[in-house]
Amino acid sequence: MKKLKLSYIVIFTLIFTLFISCKNKNIEVLTPEIIYDAYIHPVEYDMPFVNHLGYKDRQQVLDFIYKAIKLNKVTDSTGNIISLEQINNKLALLDSSIYYTQSNNLEKFILNFWDDIRFDESWEYNKKTGQIYKTVKKISFLKVIKDSFMMPINSKEIFSIELNAASKKSKIDIDKPMVIYDVCIIPLVENLSPYYHQISLSDKQKYFTDLFNIVKNNKITVLDYFYNLIPKEKIPELFYTRGIEDSTNKEINIPVSINEIGRIKFMEQWYWDTTNLSINKYVIGVNPGLKVIQGDDLIGYSPLFWAIFNKEFVDVL
Hints:
Elements: H1 2-25, E1 27-39, H2 55-70, E2 74-75, H3 84-94, H4 105-113, E3 116-126, E4 132-146, E5 152-162, E6 179-184, H5 201-216, E7 221-223, E8 240-244, E9 251-255, E10 261-273, E11 278-294, E12 297-303, E13 306-308
Antiparallel strand pairs: 1-3, 2-5, 3-4, 4-5, 4-11, 6-10, 7-13, 8-9, 10-11, 11-12, 11-13
């Protein structure tokens, strides 16, 4: 009887190992490290969820920071541990146009003025679905510095938090607010880190080749920029742009080049785990953006489509 039970255990273990092995074969590294800034305003200025983190989420972030301070996990730009008092002092000197009181500088900043967060992450993706999985290693809280026309010109780092690893989210809260934001994947400004807003061309080619094939084979939900469902018969048109042929001056179809993708717009949910001091980002969808060049200048990005990894969210949009 004991031998029979042992046999069952061995068989079950082999099946489980085989299942995990097959599952892991679909997971590819997209980039071992990327550092980027995400703008998250306290007020909705554009479309719902775009570059916006609401009051309830900001309160969760504040609790997260207080826990990190208690555990001595908060550091300045040089890596030295800093206290709540030191953070409050930095905030008081940060922007003279913002009225702070010494007792609640951090709270007032996070809830009302905080508009920029820097993520240090690694990315993987599923070759069969195209879904990206992000491991958040470190976050930095920044304040955007604006010119006289209120246009962002720089960011000032206030403090950072080293994070623990988070397990992949298995159960999603469909009612939780989303965050939609852009990540440039080509370096636009000088930075000391080679990972700042940068993915290698080979990694970019690998991921978008797989994603494009998934879209072309109708294995994923595809929406336009305004979240309207794109009919299957229209899918092939997504991979061509209109241009003018120099020799004939006629309008022609130009195949989309993966090399010209310079931005990814992400649609995500952010889960702040205060207990484990970790952040789980659930990626709902991605929207690749092609570089738009005028003369020698990059003037913006042209969105291709939304690839949605979870159909449940389509009705929410």
